[in-house]
């Protein structure tokens, strides 16, 4: 009874995703790489809207960092760390551009004379556009 191995104990699992039977691990893709990459691209595309770029950039950056930590904990088990690094860089770029876009928008509104003057300018532009139709 001393040498009995319970197949339900975690150390005795032989999951086909991780072990091919001879002790060699089969590498799998990092789980959030694709999502993080897509969010990075959306963050860059929507950077001029500000908020959408920031939200997508933060979420994508968090997912990419989570995958990098997962990879560092067990590098033999996962592949695709290069793609995750690319996604991380895209998210950082989108986040920085979005923040700069918001800062520039706020600076522009202040230079015009505040929110009321900005809204007045928009209203005048709309009236001119209606008159030209």
Overview of this protein structure:
The chain is mainly α. The chain has four helices and two strands. Helix 1 (about 35-45) packs antiparallel against helix 2, helix 1 (about 35-45) runs parallel beside helix 3 (about 80-110) and helix 2 runs antiparallel to helix 3 (about 80-110). Residues about 5-15 have low confidence and may be disordered.
Secondary structure: elements and pairs:
Blueprint: E1 28-29, H1 33-45, H2 51-73, E2 78-79, H3 81-112, H4 115-131
Parallel strand pairs: 1-2
Helix pairs in contact: 1-2, 1-3, 2-3
Features:
elongated; 4 helices; single chain; two-stranded parallel sheet; 133 residues; 64% helix; mainly alpha; 2 strands
Number of helical segments with 4 or more residues: 4
Give the overall shape: elongated
Estimated helix fraction: 55-70%
Number of domains: 1
Strand order of the largest sheet: 1-2
Please trace the helix and strand order, writing H or E for each element.
EHHEHH
The stretches of 5 or more residues where confidence is low (pLDDT under 50) are 7-16
Strand content: under 5%
Oligomer: single chain
What radius of gyration results from the CA coordinates?
A: 25 Å
Alpha carbon gap, first and last residue: 92 Å
Outline:
This protein is mainly alpha-helical and 133 residues long.
């Amino acid at each position: 009874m001393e040498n009995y191995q319970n197949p339900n104990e975690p150390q005795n699992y032989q999951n086909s995703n991780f072990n091919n039977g001879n002790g060699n691990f089969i590498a799998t893709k990092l789980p959030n790489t694709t999502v993080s990459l897509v969010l990075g691209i959306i963050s860059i595309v929507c950077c001029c809207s500000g908020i959408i770029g920031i939200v997508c950039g933060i979420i994508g950056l968090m997912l990419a960092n989570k995958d990098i930590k997962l990879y560092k904990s067990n590098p033999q088990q996962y592949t695709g760390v290069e793609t995750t690094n690319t996604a991380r860089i895209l998210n950082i770029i989108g986040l920085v551009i979005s923040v700069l876009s918001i800062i520039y928008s706020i600076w522009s509104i202040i230079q015009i004379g505040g929110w009321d003057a900005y809204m007045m300018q928009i209203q005048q532009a709309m009236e001119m556009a209606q008159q030209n139709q």
